[in-house]
Amino acid sequence: MNAITDLNQLIASMKPELQDGSYVFTTVSGDIKEHLALNPLACFQESEGLTLILEQVQAERANITYEGVFKQITLTVHSSLEAVGLTAAIATALAEQGISANVVAAHFHDHIFVPEEKATKAIRALAALSESV
């Protein structure tokens, strides 16, 4: 499977899919190995602490505080990590609808976390962007 770098091709074929589950972003102290039982979807070490993206239910079970609940939208196109402009195009389309976008790029796909209550509106906005190309 070859990763796509052409922006128009990426947008036209991104096929956004709303994933099951609700997610939260939180910061914890310590090393990732201390938090593996939480089964984090993603993590990133910052100077202020370890940021985890967790299923909301996992955070609540562990009594971990968080602000905001997000839904994950996966762009099913195999985007190259060297593609230019996809994140900007997505963020712009969502910003025009008043929707914040927290983008996580993984090896095969881009994943956008949007406020839970705006997930359906975000899917519509991304579908319209895809159809416009």
Write the topology of this structure.
Elements: H1 7-12, E1 16-18, E2 23-28, E3 42-46, E4 49-55, H2 56-61, E5 70-75, H3 86-95, E6 102-105, E7 110-115, H4 119-131
Summarize the structure in words.
- Residues 3-71 form the DUF2241 domain.
- It comes from Thalassotalea litorea.
- The chain has 133 residues and is α+β, with helices and mostly antiparallel strands.
- It has one domain: VC0802-like.
- It is 26% helix and 28% strand.
- The protein has helices at 7-12, 56-61, 86-95, 119-131, and strands at residues 16-18, 23-28, 42-46, 49-55, 70-75, 102-105, 110-115.
- The strands form 2 sheets. Strands 1-5-7-6 form a 4-stranded antiparallel sheet, covered by helices on one side. Strands 2-4-3 form a 3-stranded antiparallel sheet.
- Strand 6 and strand 7 (110-115) form a beta hairpin.
- Helix 3 packs across helix 4.
- It is globular.
